[in-house]
Amino acid sequence: MSPCNRGFEEAHTHETTLAELGYKQEFHREFTPLEAAVLAFSCIGVVPSIVSVLFYAIPNGGPFAMVWGWAIACPFIVCIGLAMAELASAGPTSGGLYYWTYSLASPRCRNFLSWIVGSSLNWACTIQITAAIGMASSDQTYVTTNQQLYGIYAALVLSNAVLVSFGTKVLARLQRLYTLMNVCLCFIIIIALPIATPPDYRNSANFVLAEFTNLSGWPSGFAFILSLMAPLYTIGGFDASVHMSEEASNAATAIPWAIVSSIVISAFLGLGVNVSLAFCMGTDVGGVLSSPVGQPMAQILYNSLGQRKALALWCLIISTEYVLSRYMVASNCLLVGSRQTFAFARDGALPFARYLYRINRYTKTPVNTVWLDATCGLAIGLLSFVSTEAINAVFTIAVTASYVAYITPITTRFAFNNNFNPARFIWGNYFPVAAIAVMWMVFMIIVFFFPASPQTTTQQMNYTVVVLGGVMFLAISWYYCPVYGGVHWFTGPISNFTPGHQR
After folding, report:
1. What is the Cα–Cα distance from 316 to 311, expressed in whole angstroms?
2. What's domain 29-488's superfamily in CATH?
């Protein structure tokens, strides 16, 4: 078969698959299966994410929690990925989780459940944009004012919006470069750091694997549970490829494998990075946590490599990860978020949906939803002027809101009678893994509500439960609002083949 005929046949297959879900093909399928996988992997960003989450692991067990916490949490995250992968194979559409929820739930409650999932996903995607750009906008070794940080943050949001508006082809091709950068940086830390670390800072296997260092004030058992938030924060956003389903070739197979492979690769690389850091950080765990540098990983590098080499490697981390890779992670989050918003608007579930559901004739992208998400990100970033705890609670919502969205379609597959067909990704007995995934997510959502220390003030309290509760309250209130609420007009996914579908 000639390349031309093969391409035509693949395009016809993609259109047929999407048509079976009720939608016509509107995007160009620029992402190859490999690029769909590396998109999810780059959204995880192993090294910069670990840099940001060591504050959760070190006080709640030290090197012990860094190694064992990661090793224990990752199999549960793989269960979540496997459960989502089969759903993605059956419904490869930009709507993703909220579309799956509607398809699998009972007619009595599917409108409401898909509304909640869609609201959670839109919020989580917006927060992921905020979190990614927030990490890219500041170097934690320097003290800057809130005004300066927000100015940098706003500039990055706007530049990301411009980049994402001009099409996905360039972003698709660049995914391989960013993945290579991520992997190389991981191996630098895994291989070079142990070689360069002086004997005084090399820890014994007994200290790393058997000695528990508790600096949090919580009982040791619960402190270790809190340390599990570090891998959960790091290996998040793997559903990014789901929302690019209508722009990926061979999506019914490529997207499930993108989810699973990104989790597995990140798990192994992250474990390697944590093991390397744990064996090279020395026994003064408290000193690393409270060092004048203000960044645990930076202090570990300083102790192991000395000032010049540590500064060189830290600059490499900043330049390749925070400036380049994290910038692209932020762009990818905005890219993915705009597609989720587009899908929700396509089904009439957002105000001004007829204006948001539009493909720009020049760029062939949903420019309106790109700028809507960017504007929401700018608004949420203003919480940095309220308090550090307020913006941190918002970042935590990126995980908890995502878990709410994950739990619902996984549960509805078994809670209601439906004709679920896993299509081209079938790996075995689904129910036990799905049950483990759901129980794990419910448990960890509760854990995310606890403060870092039992001795906390009103200002230092963890406001995640307040923010999540507020979002759920607004979503439910909007749905049941008299006259104008979604209960009166939202009917779930709408086929855009129908003549009455508004554009």
Report:
1. 8
2. Amino acid/polyamine transporter I (1.20.1740.10)
pLDDT digits (tens, 9 = 90+) for 37-96: 777 787 777 877 787 788 888 999 999 999 999 999 999 999 999 888 888 887 777 666
Strand, helix or coil at 56?
helix
357 in the Ramachandran plot: left (φ > 0), alpha (ψ -120 to 50) or beta?
beta
**Burial, 58: exposed, middle or buried (Cβ in 10 Å; 0-12, 13-18, 19+)?**
buried
Comparing C-alpha atoms, which of 398, 493, 354, 502 is closest to residue 21? 493
Cα–Cα dist 130/386, whole Å:
15
The SS3 assignment for 213 reads: strand
What pLDDT does 69 receive?
A: 93
Which H or E run includes 214? strand 213-214
User: Taking a C-beta distance cutoff of 8 angstroms, is the pair 145, 137 a contact?
Assistant: no
| Tokens at 413, concatenated | 């597959």
Distance CA 172, CA 177 (A): 10
| Residue range 370-427, pLDDT digits in tens | 888 788 777 777 766 766 666 666 666 777 878 888 888 888 888 777 777 666 666 5
Q: How many helices (H) and strands (E) does the chain have?
A: 22, 2
Distance CA 341, CA 335 (A): 10
Query: What are the residues whose beta carbons fall under 8 Å from the beta carbon of 376, sequence distance 6 or more?
Result: 126
The neighbouring-strand residues paired with 213 are: 61
- Specify the DSSP class assigned to residue 158: H
pLDDT class of 10 with cuts at 50, 70, 90: very low
Q: Which residues contact 159 (CB under 8 A, 6 or more apart)?
A: none
Based on C-alpha coordinates, what's the Rg of the chain?
Answer: 22
Q: Please list, residue by residue across 430-464, b when 16 or more beta carbons sit within 10 angstroms of its beta carbon and e when fewer do.
A: beebbebbbebbeebbeebbbbbbeeeeeeeebbb
Q: Is the pTM of this model over 0.90?
A: no
